Amino acid sequence: MDSLIPFTTSGSLVDCVDRKMLVILRDGRKLHGVLRSYDQFANLVLEDTVERIYHGNAFAESWRGLYLIRGENVVLLGEIDLDREDDIPLQQVDWHILEPYHKNDAESKKQREESKSQILYEKKGFCKEGGEGDGY
Questions:
Q1: How far apart, in whole angstroms, are the C-alpha atoms of residue 50 and residue 32?
Q2: For the chain, how are helix, strand and coil distributed in percent, rounded to 5?
Q3: Could you say which of 2.40.50.140, 2.30.30.100, 3.20.190.10, 3.30.70.260 is the CATH number of the domain covering 2-93?
Q4: What is the pLDDT of residues 38-66, one digit of tens each?
Q5: Which of 76, 22, 26 is nearest to 49 (CA)?
Q6: Which of 27, 56, 64, 121 is the most buried (most CB within 10 A)?
């Protein structure tokens, strides 16, 4: 059956359908869900989706449900090994406890990236284009 599917970027996703996947987006969000569908542009449909945030040795989840992701926003897509998923030494905490720390981490990362961009612009001659979140 696999020999009948041409090998293209989206064609290689056929084995991932109905499996639990991790999707990291350009804006840094990390989504866990079951891949239900995709198209030739790698637009994805995730079911039973949760968004995870991390800080230190803790993580929190927020239910997102059915999620449609535009393919151009996907940075990474990988299958989650269900046998090893619970072996990760992280403590799950409430979303509201971890969210302020996560936002603080994201803001400090943004400031570091802006500082780097300014140095590259002033001292190395790089342009400022492409600052719409493409610097993942």
A1: 5
A2: 35, 35, 30
A3: 2.30.30.100
A4: 998 889 999 999 999 999 899 999 999 99
A5: 22
A6: 64
